[in-house]
Write a structure and sequence with these properties.
7 helices; about 280 residues; four-stranded antiparallel beta sheet; six-stranded mixed beta sheet; 2 domains
Length: about 280
């Protein structure tokens, strides 16, 4: 009678004292040189990663090869001016991503859900043609970013990204802006913005890329759209995947700092990450 009780006690004690596994975090980022061109030869020894101000050991650094989940939001005012450039961007990243496309009309209307199907994407691009003037008060784009981020979180996207193209900008509304930035953080998505010179970016489109490790490209007109999106595509196709370890028992923190000893290199990395 004693032996079974002793065995159960040993099992219970083992369950109590066995520590949980360390947490392995994954971060995607880009690295560029002084000309803005991607840097392809970074090593883990070139980098320092801190979470919550504490340095963490890097587990691995390698080129990002996982498929991207790319949510595109188009605010062209109904001109159709982004259609060709978006098509070129999708062509440049095709085979490396699945795409969802929204267009402001004036709310962000989904034209196609996440897909790799070329026919579905062509049909969605067809709906980005000139459509007549579409009024936009600068609020709908915030809701569009919020919806895209929440959708990516619900999908548990492994490599989520949001690309916004806008000729209008945003009207910063404290509550809505905070909700959008919160949704962006919890989705783990990087927010990338291509915008027309002279518009108001506001809190979400202005701060979101900095917090999430995204890119910002300013253009003077439709002629510059293609080259700007080509630069975005090039950086995304040359991203790195970094993994680092959070020791057992250490609370996760939203503040991330990724730096490099390479003086000629700039990192486009998130400053905030999900703390759960």
């Amino acid at each position: 009678m004693t032996k079974p009780v002793l065995a159960l006690s040993v099992i219970w004690l083992a369950l109590v004292v066995t520590p949980r596994a360390e947490v392995l975090r994954t971060v995607y980022f880009s690295a560029v040189d002084g000309t803005g061109a991607p840097v392809a030869d970074l090593t883990a020894a070139d980098l320092t990663v801190k979470e919550g101000g504490k340095e963490r050991p890097i587990d691995a650094l390698k080129p990002a090869t996982r498929p991207m989940q790319l949510s595109i939001i188009v605010d062209d005012g109904g001109t159709g001016g982004f259609q060709s450039a978006v098509g070129q961007f999708i062509q440049a990243t095709f085979g490396r991503a699945e795409f969802a496309i929204r267009a402001l009309n004036p709310q962000a209307i989904k034209l196609v859900d996440f897909t790799r199907n070329s026919d579905d994407l062509k049909a969605a691009l067809g709906n980005l043609r000139q459509r007549g003037r579409i009024p936009n008060d600068g609020e709908q784009i915030i809701a569009g970013v919020t919806d895209a981020a929440k959708e990516l979180e619900q999908r548990q996207a492994s490599r989520p990204l949001i690309l916004v193209l806008t000729v209008t900008g945003e009207k910063s509304l404290s509550d809505q802006s905070d909700e959008a930035l919160k949704a962006l953080k919890y989705s783990g998505a990087s927010l990338n913005v291509v915008y027309l010179t002279g518009i108001n970016l506001g809190k979400v489109l202005g701060d979101g890329p900095k917090q999430s490790g995204g890119m910002m490209e300013q253009v003077n007109g439709n002629v510059a759209l293609g080259p700007a999106l080509a630069r975005v595509a090039d950086k995304l196709l040359h991203q790195y995947m970094l993994t680092y370890t959070i020791p057992d028992g250490v609370k996760l923190n939203e503040k991330l700092s990724l730096s490099t000893t390479r003086k000629d290199v700039k990192l486009l990395a998130p400053a905030k990450i999900p703390d759960r």
